[in-house]
């Protein structure tokens, strides 16, 4: 039970950390790196913004290193952080931006995330979250406008 709580809690907390990093770091003093993400990709490979997940992955590796092995709660928190990072890469890079060069199957929740992220790209503001980008009242109309007609 302790393991499941540590993994789940760290996964959920990473959405809060991701929101804060995106809003106050990436759209603040880290904009020199992040700006590349708001421009069309010249190449499907690396952009300066990719430094952010590399930094976060390094922090997860450090958590594993100091975690003390599977008997430690910190180790399982590192597992949750890593699981969030994997989900983020899949949702953001593979699904939304299709950076691997193929179109994944369309799923309703992931299409909702794509629209939310599109609103962020269109406006440069909210929503900053990735897996739970709750719509604010001022951006709901923009999200509806991005909804494909069926």
Characterization of this structure:
The protein has 150 residues and is mainly alpha-helical. The chain contains 6 helices and no strands. The protein has helices at 2-29, 31-34, 51-66, 73-96, 108-123, 137-146. Helix 1 (2-29) packs across helix 4. The radius of gyration is 16 Å and the shape is globular. It starts with a helix and ends with a helix.
Characteristic terms for this protein:
150 residues; globular; mainly alpha
Structure described in brief:
The protein is mainly alpha-helical and 150 residues long.
Helices and strands, with pairings:
Blueprint: H1 2-29, H2 31-34, H3 51-66, H4 73-96, H5 108-123, H6 137-146
Helix pairs in contact: 1-4, 3-4, 4-5, 5-6
Work out the count of structural domains: 1
Low-confidence stretches: none
Characterize the biggest β-sheet: none
- Tally of separate helices: 6
Class by SSE composition: mainly alpha
Order of helices and strands: HHHHHH
Task: Please report the distance between the alpha carbons of the first and last residues.
Answer: 44 Å
| Rg over alpha carbons | 16 Å
Report the portion of residues in β strands: under 5%
How would you sum up the global shape? Answer: globular
In round numbers, the mean pLDDT is 85
The helical percent reads: 55-70%
Task: Give a count of the beta strands, DSSP E runs of length 2 or more.
Answer: 0
């Amino acid at each position: 039970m302790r393991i499941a709580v540590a993994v789940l809690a760290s996964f959920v907390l990473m959405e809060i950390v991701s929101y804060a990093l995106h809003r106050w770091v990436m759209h603040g003093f880290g904009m020199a790196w992040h700006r590349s993400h708001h421009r069309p990709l010249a190449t499907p490979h690396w952009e300066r913004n990719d430094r952010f997940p590399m930094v976060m992955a390094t922090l997860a590796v450090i958590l594993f290193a100091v975690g003390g092995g599977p008997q430690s709660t910190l180790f399982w928190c590192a597992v949750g952080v890593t699981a969030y990072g994997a989900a983020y890469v899949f949702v953001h890079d593979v699904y939304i931006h299709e950076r691997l060069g193929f179109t994944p199957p369309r799923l309703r929740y992931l299409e909702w995330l794509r629209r939310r992220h599109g609103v962020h790209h269109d406006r440069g503001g909210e929503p900053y979250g990735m897996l739970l980008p709750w719509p604010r009242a001022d951006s709901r109309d923009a999200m509806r406008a991005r909804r494909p007609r069926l």
